[in-house]
Amino acid sequence: MKKIIVGNWKMNPPSVEEAVSLARAVAEHVKHPMFNKNVEVVLAPPFIFLYKVYETLYGGKVKLAGQDVFWEKAGAYTGEVSPAQLKNLGAAYVIVGHSERRALGETDEIVGRKLTAVLEAGMTPILCVGEPADVRERGMEAAKEFVGKQLEVIEHKVFEGIIAYEPVWAIGTGNNATPGDAAEMITLIKSLVTSYRLPIPVLYGGSVTSGNAGDFLNREEIDGLLVGGGSLNAEEFGEICRGA
Ligand code: PGA
């Protein structure tokens, strides 16, 4: 199966010029004749850079994602961005429920509404789930129970999207889950959620670098990576993508 590698730029880089040059450099890696055709590369820039990055990537293979979205279609929602607006700027995917959004107060109910809105707009949601450190300290079974609960936002257990397993304690910390633990959790996720186009892709995220990407990508249970810090340098991100 195809591996999917998503670069989540978060609130970086500081200027549109840097966003364009990062996107251009990533596109160069993906265009290389030796680049693995079975890897789908997706970039998630901040909203304000989406259009320029879309123009930069136009006609190439790199896809675009929104980092978040609002659930309403239009109206008086100052500061929000609708699914249709994201689609119009070229986004094929939308990250929903990232732990950094949840830390700012996003509840499972909001996550559920966003998933529905993204699917209705004809884009693919990338739903993020993962347990915090205090839960993981209680063991793998506690972590599985926590993630299982987060997946209850998916109605009838059928989901036409992508899931990213990102243990909160592994995000931006330099501590990653072992490939074995990540694969175990991903196998559980795949047993809890199905789709009409089985099997559902489940990615791993959390302190992925060029040094450990191959260890995750070599596991057949793991369908790709969600990369934060490692996606802000085109050389490093290119190396991560080549690990597949
Ligand atoms: P990180 O972030 O790779 O910097 O740990 C991953 C993410 O939050 O998506």
Automatic annotation (TrEMBL):
GO terms for cellular component: cytosol. The keyword tRNA-binding does not apply. GO terms for molecular function: triose-phosphate isomerase activity. GO terms for biological process: gluconeogenesis; glyceraldehyde-3-phosphate biosynthetic process; glycerol catabolic process; glycolytic process. InterPro entries: Aldolase_TIM, TIM_sf, TrioseP_Isoase_bac/euk, Triosephosphate_isomerase, Triosephosphate_isomerase_AS. Substrate binds at N8, W9, K10, G172, S207, G228, G229. The keyword Repressor does not apply. It holds the Pfam family TIM. Pathway: Carbohydrate biosynthesis; gluconeogenesis; Carbohydrate degradation; glycolysis; D-glyceraldehyde 3-phosphate from glycerone phosphate: step 1/1. Its main location: cytoplasm. It is found in: Cytoplasm. It is an enzyme of class 5 (isomerase). It catalyses: D-glyceraldehyde 3-phosphate = dihydroxyacetone phosphate. Its EC number is 5.3.1.1. Keywords: Cytoplasm, Gluconeogenesis, Glycolysis, Isomerase. Involved in the gluconeogenesis. Catalyzes stereospecifically the conversion of dihydroxyacetone phosphate (DHAP) to D-glyceraldehyde-3-phosphate (G3P). Homodimer. Belongs to the triosephosphate isomerase family. This is Triosephosphate isomerase. It comes from Candidatus Jorgensenbacteria bacterium GWA1_54_12.
